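Entry 14. Structure prediction run on the chain below.
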Amino acid sequence: MTSSKSYWPALLGASASVMVAGAAQGQVWRVHEPHVLGASLDMAIVADHPGSALAAARAARAEIDRLDAVLSRWRTDSELTAFNTGQGVAPSPDLLAVIQAAEHWRRATNGAFDAQLGLTDGALDLDGVGKGHVIDAALAAARRAAPDLAGMMIDIGGDLRVWGQAPSAQGWRVGVADPRRLADNAEPLQALWLNDKAVAFSGPGLRGDHILDPRTGNPARGVSAAVVASTARDADALATALCVMSPADGLALTDRLDGFEALLIDENGRRLPSRGWNALTAQDPPARLIRAQNPQGPAWPSGFSVNVNYEVPVIPRDRAQPPYIAFWITDQTGAPIRTLAILGTDLRFIDQNFIWWRRVGRTLGSVDTIARPTRRPGHYNIAWDGRDDKGQMLGQGRYTLHIEATREHGGHSYQTFDMSLGPGALTATAAADEELGATTVRYGPRAGGGA
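Output returned:
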């Protein structure tokens, strides 16, 4: 397995707008912005006119900024910081509402959710309920600013709320991430059809054991939870609590609550749904066909995959934005056989990865969004299970992995890995360059993740 790199200057547009109409539906507008509340912000807006979509997006973004100044535990100038440090400030209606919600869930879960975990002198950490409150308030602000708005989704780091008309007639299709498959391009564990609902996902994920049991101070038992509720604030709080409670107690609580459903994935990977969860799930896609005669030679080794560990570097430059990255596979003839992932949801700039665009040119995935735990910035994973774009299994043989990155107000990078894939494991690395960090490609028995 060998790697190589090439570089081209990138000629990018100067526009700073992140609004783009969907290619298939001219009335669906999408927004993507990184580094919002420590995660990324995605919005899908259904509107008859671009002016309404823009007004909704601006109002939602302004409300997020306003509430960050109220609820952030990390900002020294926030209202919550002043409250926690005893500066004698009476809580505003927003802060009071979130404190009351946190207390409600502390009582409802018998202490499995507690905003005072690890803090002293009455100080509060409202992260487990505050982000959901922000999402709810941002959606309300968007609807006030654009009364003729038809529908909207707001997703911050995998916690989200959908309302109104969806891009498809069946409703908003929301994927639930599989906590055991952490690759960026891993297929969702399940897909849900939702209308006027919120979803929160909590669990170990890529951040490790970041959830603590308030009753003991120890890491939670390793359970992941997806919760559907009427508000993002309530879904956020219950999902956090369910990761701490035993699965039996958590499901019993969910079934007692009106308007809540949950799916738990225990440490052994078992799916444990609440009573009404399965009624929300979308029909599973038909089984993928396996090619009977494999043109590449012997069969792909059972359980093998190609795993790409890559890094998005920090660029110390004014106006530097996260890069658009494309990952794809070609066969020994150079023909593209699989696009693994396209990172960057502003479709106006997707063709700036011009090598991928000219040779492949694909649209984005079919789900509206995927609920997943917030990822650690900088380090990511892409996996290939040996299938082509039609879902057909290929065989052993020679393939090339291509990685292309373009950064707005930055440069262009291109890495290729020539892979001779057979029955044995292989590893290759490429050093960091301007737009891509160090990359390691491993081929061998699958240890989690997958395409």
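Residues 50-71 form the longest helix (22 residues).
Filed with the rest of this week's runs.
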